[in-house]
Write a structure and sequence with these properties.
The protein has about 525 residues and is of the alpha+beta class. It has a domain at about 65-120 and about 220-480. It is built from 16 helices and 16 strands. The strands form 6 sheets. Strands 9, 10, 12, 13 and 14 form a 5-stranded mixed sheet that branches. A 3-stranded antiparallel sheet has the order 11-16-15, with helices on one face. This is Reverse transcriptase domain-containing protein.
């Protein structure tokens, strides 16, 4: 073996050397062939290798992160600071950019007062947690083995590790039983499932295999992810698209009120995580009664000018592992983290746009995803009802499942705006939606490492509130493509049901379907 050295030079079975130890760039501290094992005619090979656990990246991962500690925040102090700040120029401003500058200047100053930015070193262990009394026992056995080379100590160490694993197994069973017998069984089971799933899906910075080389540098990895996600979309063409107007009425604006802004804020999850602007949802939820009034001014100014703020157009992307080889970029999907303030505004726009599209019957009934009164359950119910009905009539049923590759990333922005116009969306709302889609950038964030910004040239923002509704509006007319079968859609998941009368007429229908396709 090239560059490897075989270190065993004493027979391990009779007069033959059958049990080998190969080393590369390391010299064993000691190596000896001991007595035979009780259950084998091979002798034991005891080898000690140098290993510095203090600097091992295998057992511990150290990260540095910035954060704001919201645990002991005096929220009454924040209410006072916001009330005493000078907002006159903000409310008199007719410029969205100037108003935003004042907004962030005041709020960042308040944040630095109530929850200043801190730095922390996080050391994360990948090892199985070992309770204290087991750790003491393992240290004692380790000393015993190194002192006398007693093989029975190694056996007892193995038994101790097995006991630790059994403790963890019993603890897991108890967690499951507690969740099953609790009053909120479903919520607790989902919480337990997510708790066990997250460590495997949201691991630390992955190692990426690129052109046969294993890459471990965090900066290179984040930029590889950034390039990969940026190239998932399609270039925007300049061709004009003729779209038939399908709306009799129109929607040109969204109504922002103090109440619906409060409702949107209350719908947020209380969290200390944040987007690129650094303001977390907990700040808006506990920021007091003045914040909705301030947001009302911003949202009205943004909509009336038909301009979505450039500050909100950059989002963090966290690669989320799906399945398969962790070293392959294709086995990760992008999760966008957008500014919280943008999500508050998007929620109000999304609710009113959704009500309009449904009331005007502009969204086909075949679509069940991300809409009020529709869900995965309604899709399944209508699907199985159709299948059972056709089978009860003696018809044969054929179901065609279609997988649309990278559907959310392949949305053409110009075509989407054209379709929104055909649904009766007018300015200034249409201009605002066009601004929402255009000139966006994304930054891949893994732990505290950031990639260079990359432009987003196509697709709807996965992780935004408005993105799913815009995608549904974009894909809506796919239902017109099927004259024979009946489509069922949940966002981009599509299945088409074909039913055929008795066998004498099956061939005719299949030929007709093939001709129409």
């Amino acid at each position: 073996m090239h560059c490897w050295t075989q270190c065993v030079h004493t027979p391990t079975r009779h007069h033959n050397i059958l049990d080998l130890v190969f080393c590369h760039d390391v010299t064993p501290l000691s190596l000896q062939v001991s007595k035979e094992l009780e259950s084998s005619d091979h002798k034991m090979v005891l080898c000690a290798l140098p290993f510095d656990f203090r600097h091992s990246s295998i057992h511990k991962i150290q990260k540095t992160r910035q954060y704001r500690n919201y645990k002991n925040v005096d929220w009454n102090l924040l209410h006072t600071l916001l009330s005493c700040s000078d907002w006159e120029n903000f409310f008199l401003s007719s410029s969205l950019t100037d108003a935003l500058d004042i907004f962030y200047q005041i709020n960042n100053s308040c944040l630095d007062t109530i929850a200043p930015i801190k730095l922390s070193n996080i050391i994360k262990s990948n090892d199985l947690y070992i309770p204290l009394h087991y750790r003491k026992k393992l240290r004692r056995l380790q000393k015993s083995y190194h002192k006398s080379n007693d093989f029975s100590a190694l056996m007892e160490i193995t038994m101790t590790f097995n006991q630790v694993k059994e403790v963890h197994r019993l603890k897991a069973i108890n967690e499951e039983l507690s969740a099953m017998h609790s009053s909120s069984k479903v919520q607790n089971l989902v919480r337990l499932f997510n708790k066990r799933l997250k460590p495997s899906r949201n691991s630390d910075t992955p190692c990426i295999l690129r052109d046969g080389l294993m890459i471990t540098n965090h900066n290179i990895i984040t930029n590889l992810f950034s390039d990969f996600f940026a190239n998932r979309g399609i270039p925007q063409g300049d061709n004009e698209v003729d779209i038939i107007n399908s709306a009799t009425n129109h929607m040109e604006s969204v109504t922002f009120t103090y109440d619906n802004i409060c409702k949107s804020i209350n719908s947020l999850r209380t969290s200390s995580s944040y987007g690129v602007d650094g303001i977390a949802s907990i700040y808006f939820k506990l920021g007091g009664p003045n914040l909705p009034l301030i947001l009302l001014k911003l949202f009205d100014l943004s909509l009336t000018t038909g301009s979505y703020p450039n500050r909100w157009k950059t989002s963090y992307i966290c690669p989320r592992y799906k399945s398969g080889d962790r070293t392959n970029l294709h086995n990760y999907r992008p999760i966008n983290i957008t500014p919280v303030i943008s999500r508050i505004m998007e929620k109000i726009v999304c609710d009113q746009m959704s009500d309009y599209l449904l009331s005007e019957k502009l969204i086909f009934n075949s679509q069940h995803g991300f809409l009020k009164t529709r869900s995965c359950m309604t899709c399944h119910f209508e699907f199985f009802n159709l299948v059972f009905t056709k089978r009860s009539l003696g018809h044969l049923v054929l179901v065609l499942y279609l997988d649309i590759s990278k559907a959310f990333d392949m949305v053409n922005h110009k075509l989407l705006v054209g379709k929104l116009s055909s649904y009766g969306i007018r300015n200034p709302l249409l201009a605002w939606l066009n601004s929402f889609l255009s000139n966006r950038h994304q930054i891949v964030k893994i732990n505290s490492t950031l990639s260079k910004p990359e432009p987003v040239t196509s697709g709807v923002i996965q992780g935004s509130v408005l993105g799913p509704l815009l995608f549904i509006a974009y894909i809506n007319d796919i239902c017109k493509c099927f004259s024979m079968g009946r489509p069922f859609l949940y966002a981009d998941d599509l299945k088409i049901v074909y039913s055929f009368p008795p066998p004498s007429r099956i061939c005719t229908h299949i030929q007709w379907s093939h001709y129409r396709a």
